[in-house]
Specification:
Blueprint: E1 4-8, H1 13-24, E2 28-32, H2 36-48
Parallel strand pairs: 1-2
InterPro entries: NAD(P)-bd_dom_sf, SDR_fam
Protein name: 3-oxoacyl-reductase
Pfam family, one: adh_short
Length: 49
């Protein structure tokens, strides 16, 4: 069973770095942020990984 991680502030610098590390560890992510554009960028990066 995959771990599920909720990242708030995922569009910011630290949030994106955490997102990248957890993607490499094959964890399932739930991303939340008020700023949508960088959040979409992070999501698209996750799809490529």
């Amino acid at each position: 069973m995959k771990a599920v991680v909720l990242i708030t502030g995922a569009a910011g610098g630290i949030g994106q770095a955490i997102c990248a590390q957890l993607i490499q560890r094959a964890m399932q992510l739930v991303l939340a942020d008020i700023d949508e554009k960088p959040l979409v960028y992070c999501r698209n990066g996750a799809k490529r990984a």
